[in-house]
Amino acid sequence: GDPRLALALAQRHGLPEIVGRLLAARGVAVDEAGAFLAPRLREALPDPSRLRDMDRAADRLARAVMSGERIAVFGDYDVDGATSAALLHRFFAAVGAPLLRIHVPDRLREGYGPNLPALLRLKADGARVVVTVDCGTLAFAPLAQARAAGLDIVVVDHHAAEPRLPEAAALVNPNRLDETAGFGELAAVGVAFLLVVAVNRALRRAGWYGPSRPEPDLLQWLDLVALGTVCDVVPLTGLNRALVAQGLKVLGRRGNPGIAALCDVAGLADAPGTYHLGFVLGPRVNAGGRVGESGLGARLLSTDDPAEAAALAGRLDAYNRERRALEQAALEAAIAQVERDGAEGSLLFACGEGWHPGVVGIVAGRLVQRYGLPACVVALGDGVGRG
Question: Which CATH architecture has domain 48-251?
Answer without folding.
Answer: Alpha-Beta Complex (3.90)
